[in-house]
């Protein structure tokens, strides 16, 4: 097959030679390597190849490109270009320059009927287009949160003098480009970055309404289709601008600091790696829960941050005190979620804490619990779980045989094959916790102790 293609090329080149065609030859070398670590000898060979190619095909333009693991990952994640059309009502508000071909960093504000917006967000089978929410920082948060209840009530209990868009913050759409024709706007590469909660509830509501209207074969309640929803459409391909828009528009429902990091490339990398190892990284909160995955296999951003902070950086007190503050500040976030940390470490830390939780929940733990000294720990498994990050740190120190270790050292560790290894650490931490609580001058409660640095230092000194 390759030889045939080469022969076709040679034939075409000879036949066109009299017309002096412009020839551009691109070499692409793809591998799982790191393009920033290319050997100088390899680069020299590239230049030799380019010179030889130009010698055989003069005059020609020759390019050579290395594609490594990170570049391949970006290519695989690149969304296919697509176009969707949305009907709107009344006159739109726009800052577009109709005489300019460049509409970047501009957009529209429109009103669209509920039924038309429903058609926009559903496919030919009537299913919600999940791919247009890929840039949203979280998934549907459920029917029981107050804001979602209010949205549903607004849809279910219409008032003839109040339109829906008066009661709702509306939808924010990012698109690469768009044009209007009459009362229809055509949008390229749509991403709904704010309004997933509203859209999901509207989708549920319209499904019920359509089913009822079809069953009754009547036009009852069709007047509700005349209500409108407010939609803000922004044209931009600049990633920094997109991130600022996503962050600024996602405060209609309470949102954790971790959710605002959901679209970072490292979060996507962790999710991809976990998927390959049968673990689900819930970077977009509730995404895997809503798809039916078991909670024991789901790991959230705060949970992983706590695990990394406890195991890699030996600060379980920080993990126990306030998981969200660990990654709220940029410097803390970049320390925990760093491209230099191997994906194996993220997986190991998450899996280790999950393993500790499973050991505590197992029937075999009852015998261990009965032997514990500290009455608070002995009382319930829930209390013992509060020490899971301290247990994870002590297990790591035990395995490495030192409390002074580097990030890369954790990369070599394996998960415990037997729950007895975890049970042994739990018995040790029980003894040391009881000693700490009884010898501390202020006799702190266990809940206070786990958030103290001096408690962490006490445990580290004991294990050493």
The overall average pLDDT, rounded, is 87
- What general outline do the C-alpha atoms trace? flat
Main beta-sheet annotation: 5 strands, mixed
User: What is the helical fraction, as a range of percent?
Assistant: 40-55%
The total of helices stands at 22
Estimate what percentage of residues fall within beta strands.
5-15%
Q: Please give the radius of gyration in angstroms.
A: 29 Å
The total of beta strands comes to 12
Low-confidence stretches: 219-223
How would you characterize the overall build of this protein?
The protein has 464 residues and is of the alpha/beta class. It has three domains: 2-77, no CATH class; 83-255, no CATH class; 265-463, no CATH class. It has helices at 2-16, 40-56, 69-77, 114-121, 146-156, 196-216, 239-249, 265-275, 287-290, 301-311, 316-321, 323-326, 330-336, 343-361, 365-370, 375-379, 381-385, 388-400, 407-410, 419-439, 446-449, 453-463; strands at residues 23-30, 60-67, 83-87, 89-94, 106-113, 171-175, 177-181, 184-188, 191-194, 228-235, 280-282, 298-300. The strands form four sheets. Strands 4-5-10-6-9 form a five-stranded mixed sheet, with helices on both faces. Strands 3-8-7 form a three-stranded antiparallel sheet. It has a two-stranded parallel sheet with strand order 1-2. Helix 4 crosses helix 6 and helix 18 (388-400) packs parallel to helix 22 (453-463). The longest helix is centred in the middle third of the chain and has 21 residues, at 196-216. It is flat and about 90 Å long.
């Amino acid at each position: 097959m390759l030889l045939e293609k080469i022969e076709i090329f040679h034939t075409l080149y000879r036949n066109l030679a009299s017309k002096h065609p412009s020839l551009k030859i691109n070499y692409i070398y793809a591998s799982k390597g790191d393009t920033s670590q290319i050997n100088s000898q390899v680069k020299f060979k590239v230049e030799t190849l380019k010179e030889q190619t130009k010698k055989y095909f003069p005059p020609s333009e020759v390019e050579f490109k290395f594609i490594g693991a990170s570049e391949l990952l970006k290519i695989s994640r690149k969304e296919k270009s697509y176009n969707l059309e949305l009907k709107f009502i009344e006159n739109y508000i726009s800052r577009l320059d109709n005489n300019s071909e460049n509409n970047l960093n501009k957009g529209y504000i429109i009103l669209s009927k509920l039924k038309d917006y429903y058609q926009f967000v559903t496919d030919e089978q009537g299913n919600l287009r999940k791919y247009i929410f890929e840039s949203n920082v979280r998934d549907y948060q459920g029917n029981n949160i107050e804001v979602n209840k209010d949205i549903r009530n607004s849809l279910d209990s219409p008032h003839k003098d109040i339109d829906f868009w008066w009661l709702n913050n509306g939808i924010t759409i990012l698109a690469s480009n768009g044009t209007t024709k009459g009362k229809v706007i055509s949008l390229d590469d749509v991403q709904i970055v704010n309004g997933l909660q509203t859209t999901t509830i509207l989708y549920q509501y319209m499904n019920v309404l359509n089913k009822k209207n079809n069953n009754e074969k009547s036009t009852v309640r069709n007047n509700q289709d005349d209500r409108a929803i407010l939609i803000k459409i922004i044209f931009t391909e600049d990633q920094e601008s997109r991130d600022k828009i996503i962050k600024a528009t996602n405060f209609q429902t309470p949102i954790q600091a971790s959710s605002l990091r959901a679209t970072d490339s490292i979060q996507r990398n962790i999710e991809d790696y976990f998927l390959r190892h049968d673990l689900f990284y819930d970077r977009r909160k509730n995404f895997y829960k809503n798809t039916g995955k078991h909670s024991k296999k789901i790991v959230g951003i705060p949970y992983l941050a706590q695990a990394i902070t406890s195991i890699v950086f030996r600060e379980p007190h920080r993990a126990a005190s306030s998981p969200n503050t660990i990654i709220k500040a940029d410097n803390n976030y970049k320390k925990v979620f760093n491209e230099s940390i191997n994906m194996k470490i993220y997986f190991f830390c998450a899996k280790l804490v999950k393993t500790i939780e499973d050991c505590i929940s197992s029937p075999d733990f009852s015998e261990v619990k009965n032997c514990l000294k500290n009455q608070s720990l002995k009382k319930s498994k829930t209390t013992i779980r509060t020490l899971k990050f301290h247990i994870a740190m002590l297990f790591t120190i035990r395995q490495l045989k030192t409390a002074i270790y580097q990030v890369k050292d954790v990369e070599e560790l394996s998960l415990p094959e037997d729950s007895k290894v975890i049970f042994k650490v739990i018995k040790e931490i029980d003894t040391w916790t009881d000693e700490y609580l009884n010898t501390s001058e202020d006799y702190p409660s266990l809940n206070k102790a786990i958030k103290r640095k001096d408690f962490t230092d006490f445990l580290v000194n004991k294990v050493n």
